[in-house]
Design brief:
By secondary structure, this protein is an all-alpha fold. It is built from eleven helices and no strands. It is elongated and about 70 Å long. The chain starts with a helix and ends in a 16-residue tail after the last helix. Residues about 225-245 have low confidence and may be disordered.
């Protein structure tokens, strides 16, 4: 059989879908670790990006930090962090924490930059109109800026999520879980090409599914119903002098 047939046969084998180390288990590990890394990255990067975009201060620093984050290879981050985390926790500090740190650093730049750019790109006249209505800064951000910039913000989260899913396989090199185990174990085994390529197919399919899910979420944020539910987001007419819904 050729490689394609061997890979299809490996994926179709019922033995690979049950028990320890099965496809569902590795998939759950991969999704779980990716979700944790994305959540941490969002908690760190999103508030910072929103604040920078809203105040228009610190954008140059944010761009420089994002560029540095992009320039650092994830495998290098894992290698740098591993001795410290392993000293704290010999088990998870070797298998899990270094990869999570690397994935968080990988996802922060697109989330931070897109959040800042989305908020900063909003027409200042619209923002000033909201302030003229008596809205506080927090209300302006929540009711005007975030709803308008939401598609751009989600673009950053989408990019970060896809990068995390595709790169999380590196953790398997350090005995971590996830779909990367199939690549590492397949390469380590003699005649394990089918397992390794099955891992590639599964990671690619999960990355595409992640990309598609966030693309649908972005499309949903452009619907008039959702924008209306966030509050007034339309530029006021000169005669009305106020925001309309």
């Amino acid at each position: 059989m050729n490689l394609v047939g061997d890979t299809a046969a490996w994926l179709a084998d019922p033995a690979h879908w049950t028990g320890p180390g099965s496809i569902p288990q590795r998939l759950a590990e991969h999704v779980g670790l990716s979700a944790i890394a994305l959540l941490v990255a969002v908690v760190i990067a999103l508030p910072a990006g929103l604040a920078i975009g809203h105040t228009r201060r610190g954008s140059a620093l944010a761009a420089n930090l994002a560029n540095i984050g992009r320039a650092i290879p994830s495998l290098a981050v894992i290698g740098i962090v591993l001795p410290f985390t392993a000293a704290i926790d010999p088990q998870l500090g070797f298998k899990v924490y270094p990869t999570l740190v690397a994935m968080v650093i990988l996802a922060i730049p697109p989330i931070l930059v897109n959040a800042e750019a989305g908020i900063a790109g909003i027409d200042t006249e619209l923002v000033e109109s909201a302030r003229g209505m008596g809205m506080r800064e927090g209300q302006v951000l929540r009711r005007v800026e975030i709803p308008i910039a939401l598609p751009v913000i989600l673009t950053g989260v989408r990019s970060g999520a896809t990068q995390i899913v595709a790169t999380m396989t590196l953790g398997a090199i350090f005995a971590g879980g996830g779909l990367g185990r199939f690549l590492v174990e397949g390469i380590a085994q003699r005649d394990g090409d089918a397992m390794a390529w099955s891992g590639v197919v599964l990671v690619a399919a999960l990355a595409l599914a992640t990309e598609g899910t966030f693309a649908l979420a972005q499309r949903a944020t452009t619907s008039p119903g959702l924008r209306h539910s966030w509050g007034p987001v339309t530029r006021p007419s000169s005669s009305a002098g106020s925001l309309s819904t």
